[in-house]
Amino acid sequence: MMRRALLPLLAAPLLSLPAHAAEELPLWEVGVGVAAVSFPDYRGSDRQRVHALPVPYLIYRGDFLKADRDGIRGVFFDSDRVELNMSLAASLPVDSDGNGARRGMPDLQPTLEFGPSLEVNLWRSADRQARVDFRMPLRAAFTVHGSVRHVGMVFTPFINLDVKDPLGQHGWNLGMLAGPIYGDARQHRYFYDVDPRYALPDRPAYRASGGYGGSQFIMALSKRFDRFWVGSFVRYDNLSGAAFADSPLVRKKSAWAAGIGMAWVLGQSSTLVRVED
């Protein structure tokens, strides 16, 4: 169960794009920026840190590969109401020596997650300024530092609301999502197991099981100006009832995370493509 607070902000440049029906937009846009984010070391950690991170700004509007307001994805199937895409996610490492709950335990390595996502449009407004989707990403997770190791499967179904020009504020984009998180036993054990050799009087040995991994709510707000983009997000996590909630590594059952960033658009394609909502 990775530190997904990072992901909305790194994807936030993608949320800034207006996507009204039948627009002609550049095939690609690139830029770079910086963000400040604050979130726990991992879901359930009582250590909150602030990170300064680079923010890549990448837009690509190809027929199959797309990097846009919905993330970086390969589009396998696309109809008026249903899409089958490729879903990606990632996490940063955790230094266990700096985390009281994990002291003396191995560090958590950065991970990469990828897999299919079935997305169903439930509703869209007549002017296409707002839409509600049900998204069902299923991803396999792997460590990406040193030897590659499979660390489980993650399923995160959620309801997603996108609103363009919220409250009449032209050019702004508001995104909100909410839903549960599920992980298999291997995924939960990577983050929440305590091997007997690392057990302490205040940290008994623990073996996690798969299943429900809590719920989350994320809200992101962003805007693309002429040559730069600004965005922010806030996330709330709740681990009540999670399969690993009784792990000694879980110190908090709920937590907030937030971030803000800016990116500068450095270039764009002279080739225009027709973009549907």
Topology:
Blueprint: H1 6-15, E1 23-26, E2 28-40, E3 48-61, E4 65-68, E5 71-78, E6 82-91, E7 111-124, E8 130-143, E9 149-155, E10 158-164, E11 172-183, H2 185-192, E12 211-224, E13 228-238, E14 254-268, E15 272-275
Antiparallel strand pairs: 1-15, 2-3, 2-14, 3-4, 4-5, 5-6, 6-7, 7-8, 8-9, 8-10, 9-11, 10-11, 11-12, 12-13, 13-14
| First-residue to last-residue Cα separation | 32 Å
How much of the sequence is in beta strands?
over 45%
| N-to-C series of helices and strands | HEEEEEEEEEEEHEEEE
Rg result: 19 Å
CATH architecture: Beta Barrel
- Strand tally, please? 15
CATH topology: Outer membrane phospholipase (ompla), Chain C
Q: What general form does the structure show?
A: globular
What's the CATH class, please? Mainly Beta
Roughly how much helix do the residues carry, as a percent range? Answer: under 10%
Q: What average pLDDT do the residues reach?
A: 87
Structural class call reads mainly beta
Number of domains: 1
